[in-house]
């Protein structure tokens, strides 16, 4: 797939400095650019590379000023980083563009789907499933009974969406995701044996939710596990039954959230964070990686550690943590001198 500088400038509404007919067919870092590749310059510390890169086209900010001759063709835009991201999105849309229903596919007669749909081979779509327009479901996906999928959704190979789940418009569900598996609900009987508590709820993904590869979101015991609009989930995250995650919250890999916890809007949660069940985390909260959250958290708090402390308190305490061996030695020396 090749693009000329003229085509790229048209997509980005940019100005060409150099050869408008030069073609590119791949992407590269500016320091690793080769002939036929497209790159960008956004961070000033990489400016020296623009004079040595062999990339055929480089996207730069309009404020960029040439100091020496260069061989790459420039496309000047308002924001090089955002423009490059826009181009990546466009490239993905072209690359992943597929239409039609491959065979073999199981598609229940009671299910229905919209226009411009793609369903990959070996996909299973159950009874009473409703699928919107411009949906792409890649091979080996499983869509259970009574699932509703909105418009412009992408479901990658091997994803599993259990019955009754609701997926909003513009969602992306990556390979290996399991949406709507049973919550971890067991109750001990008089013999000390654990009996399963039926999980009768569902999962709701609102619009523009991204779910990373291998992430699991459990159905509610009663009601719904809800992932609100604009939430972005990294790979290998566990979200338990009846959890609710607020709008535009982002969560990094290997985080685990126990049942019935409510997380607010616009939060940022680092990797390998553990969050206990039945607590409330406020809006705009930031939690550093590998923290353990065992209490309610107010709006705008920043936390670190396990159990987590206020970020400033943690840093002050850490000064003492790392000096503990020296302090112990001093105490031992004082004991010996008595």
Number of helices: 4
Which percent range fits the helix content?
Answer: 10-25%
Distance between the termini: 81 Å
State the oligomer: single chain
Number of beta strands: 40
C-alpha geometry = flat
- How many domains make up the coordinates? 2
What would you call the structural class? alpha/beta
The strand line-up of the biggest sheet is: 8-11-14-17-20-25-28-31-34-37-39-40
CATH architecture of the largest domain: 3 Solenoid
Q: What kind of sheet is the major sheet?
A: 12 strands, mixed
CATH class of the largest domain: Mainly Beta
Residue windows where pLDDT falls under 50 for at least 5 positions = none
Can you identify the CATH superfamily of the largest domain? Hexapeptide repeat proteins
The pLDDT mean sits at 93
Strand content: 25-35%
Briefly note the CATH topology name of the largest domain.
UDP N-Acetylglucosamine Acyltransferase, domain 1
Cα radius of gyration in angstroms = 26 Å
List the helices and strands and how they pair.
Layout: E1 3-4, H1 5-12, E2 15-17, E3 23-24, E4 26-27, E5 37-40, E6 57-61, E7 73-77, H2 80-95, E8 100-101, E9 106-107, E10 112-113, E11 118-119, E12 124-125, E13 130-131, E14 136-137, E15 142-143, E16 148-149, E17 154-155, E18 160-161, E19 166-167, E20 172-173, E21 178-181, E22 186-188, E23 194-196, E24 202-205, E25 210-211, E26 216-218, E27 224-227, E28 232-233, E29 238-239, E30 244-245, E31 250-251, E32 256-257, E33 262-263, E34 268-269, E35 274-275, E36 280-281, E37 286-287, E38 292-293, E39 302-304, E40 309-310, H3 311-321, H4 324-337
Parallel strand pairs: 4-5, 5-6, 6-7, 8-11, 9-12, 10-13, 11-14, 12-15, 13-16, 14-17, 15-18, 16-19, 17-20, 18-21, 19-24, 20-25, 21-26, 24-27, 25-28, 26-29, 27-30, 28-31, 29-32, 30-33, 31-34, 32-35, 33-36, 34-37, 35-38, 37-39
Antiparallel strand pairs: 1-3, 2-7, 22-23, 39-40
């Amino acid at each position: 797939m090749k693009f000329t500088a003229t085509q790229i400038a048209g997509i980005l509404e940019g100005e060409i400095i150099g050869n408008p007919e030069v073609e590119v067919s791949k992407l590269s870092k500016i320091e690793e650019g080769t002939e036929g590749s497209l790159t960008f310059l956004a961070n000033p510390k990489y400016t020296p590379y623009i004079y040595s890169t062999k990339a055929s086209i480089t996207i730069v900010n309009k404020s960029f000023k040439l100091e020496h001759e260069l061989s790459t063709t420039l496309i000047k835009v308002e924001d090089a980083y955002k423009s490059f991201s826009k181009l990546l999105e466009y490239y993905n849309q072209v690359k992943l563009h597929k239409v039609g229903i491959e065979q073999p596919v199981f598609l229940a007669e009671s299910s229905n789907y919209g226009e411009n749909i793609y369903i990959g081979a070996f996909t299973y779509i159950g009874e009473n499933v409703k699928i919107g327009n411009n949906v792409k479901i890649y091979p080996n996906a499983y869509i259970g009974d009574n699932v509703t999928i909105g418009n412009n959704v992408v479901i990658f190979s091997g994803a599993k969406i259990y019955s009754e789940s609701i997926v909003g418009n513009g969602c992306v569900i990556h390979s290996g995701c399991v949406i709507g598996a049973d919550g971890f609900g067991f109750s001990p009987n008089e013999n000390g044996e654990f009996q399963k508590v039926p999980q009768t709820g569902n999962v709701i993904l609102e619009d523009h939710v991204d779910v990373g590869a291998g992430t699991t979101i459990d159905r509610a015991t009663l009601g719904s596990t809800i992932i609100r609009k604009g939430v972005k989930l990294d790979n290998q995250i566990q979200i338990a039954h009846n959890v609710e995650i607020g709008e535009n919250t982002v969560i990094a890999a290997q985080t685990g959230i126990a049942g019935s916890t409510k997380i607010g809007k616009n939060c940022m949660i680092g990797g390998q964070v553990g969050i206990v069940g039945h607590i409330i985390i406020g809006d705009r909260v930031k939690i550093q990686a590998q923290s353990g959250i065992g209490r309610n958290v107010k709006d705008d708090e920043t936390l670190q550690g396990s159990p987590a402390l206020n970020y400033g308190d943690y840093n002050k305490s850490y000064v003492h943590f790392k000096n503990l061996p020296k302090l112990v030695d001093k105490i031992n020396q004082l004991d010996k001198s008595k």
